[in-house]
Amino acid sequence: MDDDQEIQNGESLVQEETRVPLISQEKRRLNNGDEEQPTKGRIREDTFMVYATTFVSACGSYACGSCVGYSSPTQSAIREDVHLSLAEYSMFGSILTFGAMFGAITSGKMADYIGRKRTMLLSSGFCTAGWLFIYFAQEAILLDIGRLATGYGMGVFSYMVPVFIAEVAPKDLRGMLTTLCWVMLCTGVSVSFILGTILTWRTLALTGIIPCAIVLFGLFTIPESPRWLAKRGNQKEFEASLRKLRGKNADIFEEAAEIQDYIETLEKLPKAKLLDLFQKRCQRPVTIGVGLMVCQQFGGINGISFYTSSIFESAGFPANVGTIIYAILPISGAGLVIGCLLTGISFFLKEHGLALGAAPALAVTGILVYVGAFSMGMGVIPWMMMSEIFPIDIKGVAGSLVTLVNWFGAWVCTLTFNFLMSWSSYGTFILYAAINALAIVFVIKLVPETKGRTLEQIHAAIDSS
Considering only CA atoms, which of 63, 35, 190, 218 is closest in space to residue 126? Predict the structure, then answer.
């Protein structure tokens, strides 16, 4: 009986050894020659490469912020130097979102086909070329071509950066690191606003190349997404990438096995198409992703961001002073609804000749509260959720759809903002307040908690709900 038991134990051990097909069974030897088994829990022993990878990719988000923040402080100077009409400058400002929509359409498939790093490399190239077109522009057509190119790069970055960070980060750091995307985007907007008050518009365009250059050169020093490599069947590269991200002494066996099991399950499924997003298993994550982007954009953020200077001027507040205050705001906030209501009340008072002395300060306070709250919540949550809620087999096509919805919403918002302000300045902000109130209900009812869960656990929880 003892011999039979030993045989059974040996067979179980062999079966256990074969459960990790891609990762070699590395063992380290102690000074006395004994073998030390890989110790679990070492996954965070060396996080330098995770942070470095996050920083390089998050510079893509900073580049997006530079694009968004460029048009507001440069409006007067560009119109004067290039002799643009208001309609021509409006085209220059809004065509950015058209480029972003094209970027959104192609980003998911591109990322799945050529990889996460090459996609960001291409995006950096488009942004760099776009800024150079703007710098050398002497007429409207070159300005528009440059703006369109930077918009395309921005659309790709807006999808790719949070997805890439989510795929390389360990689960206990993923939420914090994906939040950095929004922090960097806000920083890019803020720096552009501030520099726009002291630099010429051509020089400001050149500063937009800096984050692109960091991404271009940084991508050669960081690993590719291990999940993408596993999906492509590149076994050695997958192991090397995960090892580089977690550290040479980290135990990656459990995480690698989990990723492999998940990928193997997904490989049995047919390749995702747009119509597949309407399947029952995809309905909830797609609803969450699309719904959050609708709430984010139709709450008014891009109308406010693109025309901040004109809002301050209309409210009777000095544009340069207001712009600088706006630029340093992303460190604080109180509430989107409150911010819109305060701004709406300001314009109501001004239109009816009430409290004229207080109206300008109230408008600025409302905008600052709005942007601060957006930076801390609705600005970052949708992109974080998008990077987490979609299974990897539909992540490309679903990510493209959600990013497309986001930039379509941005285009609608920027296109209609001036018309809404002409209709009713205070009514515009009351409308935005109502949409943001509905967004709160949407988040409470539908958005799941993802903290402390692996991507695979998140997808399983969504499927079971």
Answer: 63
CA distance 74 to 56: 28
Q: Tokens 């440059």 — which residue?
A: 146
As a whole number of angstroms, the distance between CA 105 and CA 198 comes to: 36
Taking alpha carbons only, the member of 443, 441, 448 closest to residue 463 is 448
The count of other CB atoms within 10 Å of the CB of residue 429 is: 29
For the chain, how big is the Rg over CA atoms in Å? 25
Are the C-beta atoms of residues 60 and 103 closer than 8 Å to each other?
no
Could you tell me the CA-to-CA distances from 291 to 64, 215, 305, 428 in Å, in that order?
22, 30, 21, 21
Mapped onto helix, strand or coil, the DSSP state of residue 139 is: coil
CA distance 212 to 64: 10
Decide if pLDDT at 330 tops 60: no
CB under 8 Å to 449, separation ≥6 — which residues? none
Most distant CA atoms of the chain, gap in Å: 98
Burial class of residue 448, CB neighbours in 10 A (0-12, 13-18, 19+): middle
- Comparing CA positions, the residue from 116, 106, 119 lying closest to residue 167 is 116
Residues in the chain: 465
Of 255, 200, 196, the C-alpha closest to 43 is: 255
Task: Please report, as a single letter, which amino acid is at residue 382.
Answer: P
CA distance 346 to 365: 10
Give the pLDDT confidence score for residue 116 in this predicted structure.
92
Q: Write the pLDDT tens digit of every residue in 239-273.
A: 888 888 888 777 778 788 888 887 777 777 666 66
**Closest to 205 measured CA to CA, from 128, 97, 123:** 128
> Smallest Cα–Cα separation from 149: which of 215, 89, 103?
103
Q: How many CB atoms lie within 10 A of CB 452?
A: 10
Residue 164, classified by CB atoms within 10 Å of its CB into exposed (0-12), middle (13-18) or buried (19+), is: buried
Hey, is 29 helix, strand or coil?
strand
C-alpha closest to that of 336 among 447, 436, 442, 441: 436
- Per-residue pLDDT band for 21 (boundaries 50, 70, 90) equals very low
